[in-house]
Amino acid sequence: MAAALQTNIRPVKFPATFRALTKQSPAPFRVRCCAVNSAGKKRYNITLLPGDGIGPEVISIAKKVLQQAGSLEGVEFSFREMPVGGAALDLVGVPLPEETISAAKDSDAVLLGAIGGYKWDKNEKHLKPETGLLQLRAALKVFANLRPATVLPQLVDASTLKREVAEGVDLMVVRELTGGIYFGVPRGIKTNENGEEVGFNTEVYAAHEIDRIARVAFETARKRRGKLCSVDKANVLEASILWRRRVTALAAEYPDVELSHMYVDNAAMQLVRDPKQFDTIVTNNIFGDILSDEASMITGSIGMLPSASLSDSGPGLFEPIHGSAPDIAGQDKANPLATILSAAMLLKYGLGEEKAAKRIEDAVLGALNKGFRTGDIYSNGTKLVGCKEMGEEVLKSVDSQVHASV
Ligand code: IPM
Ligand code: MG
């Protein structure tokens, strides 16, 4: 209730990862604030970007879960929903309207559903939904993309890998998100001197871009099992040679982290051969895109995996790693858990609200423990539910924590 808001503003407690980022950053960082209302509740502004396909279904559920978990920890949210991707193209003709950028920049965190769909597939590149997502990442300067892949004991049988290979996998892909071939210039399609069309892109990394993502990765590994594998293609690409050199040099500052290097083709193979050898993986934008999809499959379903994209100052962007799944959109079949877990990452990495985050993670496990499964993670003997029902079960599970704690 806006009227009840007091004017006292207090700084957000930055989570450890965030502090680690800012400590090393040469640029002064903007302290984000949250208002505190008369009841002493913290209030955060969240921009919701439902996007396309199953996006709106999963976002509406994650919103309720955020509200519920927040209320148990004295945290309130004001949500502002803005268009992105195909939804924005239909509405205003561009995939990332200025208003969406400003709302996102002005908020404490951004939660995105998914973008894309058949309808816009043939659009020119600057009018593709995917372009809107890349522009958003660039506008928010979210260079560090954390993509965890954990095989939950409840879902081991959903993996296509043998139980003994999949069981216990718990890895984190730290993907560089605002550089490399995705953004490098020159790029384009032109006609060469023989009159033939040529498409070209540039894989480019400056030293500071490598250093800052490597630091995030070392810090991440330090808080996990202390093992970092840097993935590159240094046997062929100059950008990778520099990558390996910079990462190796930084290792001296993190003597407690065991650093190894692996070529990307080998890493792709090792991920399905023996995924448990990995703890934290750090890699460039395009290798991270590919390897994180591969890692997700070890867990059984891409419908389970959240992600966090962080900058060294402004709001983070949190999104499930799955796409908009137009084939099942609007049919109540989507798995909302990746978005719900992205909301947990938003609380943990974006706002430093670790207790509320834990409530959400526990609630997801609670719903799975009761045997509820969406189609993508269904196996014999479990209860098949739709997107909404899965969301309700997670909410009930958050609720039951109230009773458990009184
Ligand atoms: C991802 C997606 C995006 C990417 C697409 C939609 C632009 O595949 O987030 O992994 O390539 O980064
Ligand atoms: Mg991808």
Automatic annotation (TrEMBL):
Transmembrane segments: none annotated. Pathway: Amino-acid biosynthesis; L-leucine biosynthesis; L-leucine from 3-methyl-2-oxobutanoate: step 3/4. The keyword Acetylation does not apply. Binds 1 Mg(2+) or Mn(2+) ion per subunit. It holds the Pfam family Iso_dh. Residues 45-394 form the Isopropylmalate dehydrogenase-like domain. InterPro entries: IsoCit/isopropylmalate_DH_CS (IPR019818), IsoPropMal-DH-like_dom (IPR024084), Isopropylmalate_DH (IPR004429). The keyword NAD applies. Its cofactor is Mn(2+); Mg(2+). It catalyses: (2R,3S)-3-isopropylmalate + NAD(+) = 4-methyl-2-oxopentanoate + CO2 + NADH. Signal peptide: none annotated. Its EC number is 1.1.1.85. Keywords: Amino-acid biosynthesis, Branched-chain amino acid biosynthesis, Leucine biosynthesis, Magnesium, Metal-binding, NAD, Oxidoreductase. Gene3D superfamilies: Isopropylmalate Dehydrogenase (3.40.718.10). Belongs to the isocitrate and isopropylmalate dehydrogenases family. NCBIfam families: leuB. Homodimer. Catalyzes the oxidation of 3-carboxy-2-hydroxy-4-methylpentanoate (3-isopropylmalate) to 3-carboxy-4-methyl-2-oxopentanoate. The product decarboxylates to 4-methyl-2 oxopentanoate. This is 3-isopropylmalate dehydrogenase. The lineage of its organism: Eukaryota, Viridiplantae, Streptophyta, Embryophyta, Tracheophyta. The gene is A07p052090.1_BraROA.
